[in-house]
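Handout, page 2. Input:
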Amino acid sequence: MNDNKEENLDAIGLALSGGGVRAAAFHAGTLRYLAEQGLLENVMHVSSVSGGSLFVGMVFRHANYSWPSSETYLNEVLPRVRETLITHSLQRSALARLVCNPFNWRFALSRANVLAQAIRGLWDVKASLSTLKGAPVWSINCTTGETGRRYRFKNGTMGDYELGYAAVEDFSLARAMAISAAFPGGIGPLTLKTNRFHWKKRKDWNADEADSYQPPFVHLHLYDGGLYDNLGIEPMFDVGRQELKKDDTLRSNITYLLVSDGGAPLARAAIPHPLNPFRFKRIADIALDQSRALRVRSFVSVLQKNPSAGAYVGIGADARPSIKRFAKGRETIASVLLARDWLSAADVSRAATYSTNLCRMDEPIFDLLERHGYETAKWNVELMSQKQGMSYVRKLSELEQ
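Output:
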């Protein structure tokens, strides 16, 4: 990890969580903040899950399948992302394709296939993975039903470390996005036949070369990446060692990790009756929330020791009390930030509790979530990062003069 605070934002990693369109709108605000600071050009690696993967796919689509510059994101991509989310309902489109097209009835138990059709038809995402050009590297994260491991699409390959990896440069981007969002029950898995791909796997972890290999399963059932890691943090952060990972596939190892978490906080509620099927959902939600919390705690532990190593941008954080909480030793930038107009606690709560779905959003809801993402990124990065915070103070001083 780079200890030079003045250089940490020069190689940024982005981890974008799941959470349906709520997370997508929240992430849109996070990227708006980075773009206003001219930092999108510094992003080396993007790792996404579910709603985060849908959002990144939209960003690439509206930037002609290239990572946008900061200016392009602000002037072209963000307005188009907004228009897409307030105009189209992926959920309704996928349901209509499933019910009204008899050819799709075969996908009744693997509805991710129909979601991929909706992404292609409604969002016009018709490219393959090989179409993506230039930096940053994008890890699209899923979960393997057979192994329980993180399954990812990255650099034209797919797989997990137990199964091995297969080249899939011609794989549909829409299908990869749909797999990453394939929540059990609501959407269901996408099934792949393993014999349609050429797999390779290292005989041991330190082997230089990978050998041809055939996975022990005829089919793979690929689910939402949020089942394994809803933050999408694992490709860039070692939870056990509590340090940023090195990655030989990048032109520069990341020195700053920004985690944008638009996942729904666990609601405090009475547990359903034992005969109520939603009781199982509640138990599953508790388990997933604890898995996420352990990763958050590990990452925040690193930030407490080295605040310039990154930022945790979590939905539901009220700006004003949060700034006051972390103001000690950062009084100058804290006073400047506290003078700003922030969303009210009621608006923050309304944003955080918006339901997890893939429906069309009303304009005010998108604008609220996008602003919440922007504000949460702003106070986190500027308060905790010496470089960004002091740069912001200097800009204000120049304007006042």
